[in-house]
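Re: that backbone. Tokens:
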């Protein structure tokens, strides 16, 4: 009977050691996953910030392009008004053949 008790105690001790090792390994794995998730969140925030900055720059660039376009139209009208070789819109062009 003494040997049976020793065997049972050894088996229990082995099971306790295995349970502690499994628990420790699981804890380390969970901590690694937490660290990795935090890194992913940080990367996502950085990417979102860069995207927001790029969007703002694109909007500013589009606004500047629109102003340049308006300026070009204004200059074209001014050139049309001051060009001595351009006929008035209300008068027919004598050199133009129909």
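Recovered sequence:
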């Amino acid at each position: 009977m003494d040997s049976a008790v020793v065997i049972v105690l050894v088996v229990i001790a082995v099971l306790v050691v295995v349970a502690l090792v499994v628990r420790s390994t699981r804890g380390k794995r969970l901590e690694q996953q937490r660290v990795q998730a935090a890194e992913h969140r940080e990367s996502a925030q950085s990417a979102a910030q860069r995207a927001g900055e790029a969007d703002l720059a694109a909007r500013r660039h589009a606004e500047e392009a629109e102003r340049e376009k308006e300026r070009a139209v204004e200059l074209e009208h001014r050139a049309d008004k001051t060009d001595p070789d351009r006929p008035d819109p209300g008068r027919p062009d004598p050199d133009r053949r129909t």
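The helical segments are 2-82. The chain has a mean pLDDT of 89.
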